[in-house]
Amino acid sequence: MIQYGEDRFKSGLQAMWKQCFPQDSDAFIAFYFDKIYTNDESLIYLEDGCPVAFLQMIPYPVKIGNEICSGGYLSGVMTAPDYRKRGYMEKLLNTAFDEMVNKGYAYSFLIPQEEWLFDFYGKYGYLSAFQERQSIFQEVTAPKESLILRNKKVHIYTSLSEIDIPNVYAVYDRFLMEKPNVILKTPKQFEAMLWV
Question: Which of 45, 58, 125, 196 is the most buried (most CB within 10 A)?
Answer without folding.
Answer: 45
